[in-house]
Amino acid sequence: MLQRAAVRSHTSHGHPGHDGLRAQPKLAKPQAPDKSGWTLGHAGRQVRVGPVAFWTIVGSLVLMAGWSAMTATYFAFRDDVLTRLLARQAQMQFAYEDRIADLRGQVDRLAGRQLLDQEQFETKLEQIARRQALLESRSSALSGLPDAPTGSIKPAPRGAAAPIVTPMIAPPAAAKPSPINDTVILLPPPEREARLESRTPLNAGVRLAALQTQGGIEGTLARLQLSLDRFESGQVKTLNALEETYDAKARRMRGVLADLGLDLSKIGAAPPAPSARGTGGPFIPASVTGVSTFDRQLYRIRLARGHVDRLTRTLATVPIRKPMTGELESTSGFGMRADPFIRAPAMHTGLDFRAETGEPARATATGTVTMAGWNGGYGKMVEVDHGNGFATRYAHLSQIDVEVGQPIRIGQVVGKVGSTGRSTGPHLHYETRVDGDAVDPQKFLRAGVRLGGAL
Prior knowledge:
Elements: E1 38-42, E2 45-49, H1 51-143, H2 204-213, H3 217-259, H4 293-315, E3 330-332, E4 335-338, E5 345-348, E6 351-354, E7 360-362, E8 367-374, E9 380-387, E10 390-400, E11 407-408, E12 413-417, E13 427-434, E14 437-439, H5 441-451
């Protein structure tokens, strides 16, 4: 039995109406109960417990009761908890496995896409390589034309993204045309340089990453295609320029021959060029089906060049060049004049050019020497037969440097200027004869000036 400790007070009860002399008992002062602890009683025994110990005992009992409840709950619901934990773990495992499978699928797709891209890249690169080989073969065909020097596709140095292609058309020589020079063929105008990304096919497996760092595979292939387009465009421009050049030269030559009154059908066939000698082979007709535009145009250019070569060899036998170098000053023209000795009207069959004694006199066309010696009023004279009825004479020479029967080429020195024969002073008397009749040399010299660099 638990009860709080207290001091019981005993009082005497008197009767209020009693008026006896009995003395009233003295009341004792009540005492406050002791609140400093708790008293535990059992079977007459009492144990005093302080508040700290009391609440400690109470707290322990509460904790033990809570723990007992939790333990009971655990054992009661243990199977459900374990089942839920295992299900949660299995769910997480399945989720991770699905994620891994998805990632593997993505990796496989990326690998397949990369393999497909690499195959496409290699296919495009192979097409570029075939096109480059075709352009190289065309460049070799163009290099066979001496009038069209072409460049080659040079390989790129290591680490270079855009290899350089040499210019396809060389600039024409700026030499001043001279009527006494050998044949000079005009070159087509220069074109801008073309660039090519590479000469040799790229290795996709090795250079794939390098190409990606240089702007992507597609960009690199596009630059390669653009470079090949420029190179091919340069070749087409070269062909067009050559064809136009040959056509223009042929027209000029035919026009000059027509102005000179020469009929090509009546002129003997010119000797073949040295490069055309010693050729032959069985005749195999060419098939025109499947022939590219480039090949057809190249064939037309070769025909035009052959025609120009024949006209050039024909003009090589026509005396249209100057008999001396430098600027010529005529002291007496062709035709009627007053004879320098007797002042009577006389026919002058040539042109007199002012010159100093010893200056060289040069042949104005190819031919053969038919006369080399003294010839009356001509003094020392050289006559050259150029064929097709053309002949030239070089008179009043102080020295003769050729012999009869000797072949003569254009510009070759036939003698030195002098004043032999019927002459008033050092000068060169130059004559042009057609079928034995003297004609005005100026007509031929003007034709040579018109042709200019075409000779």
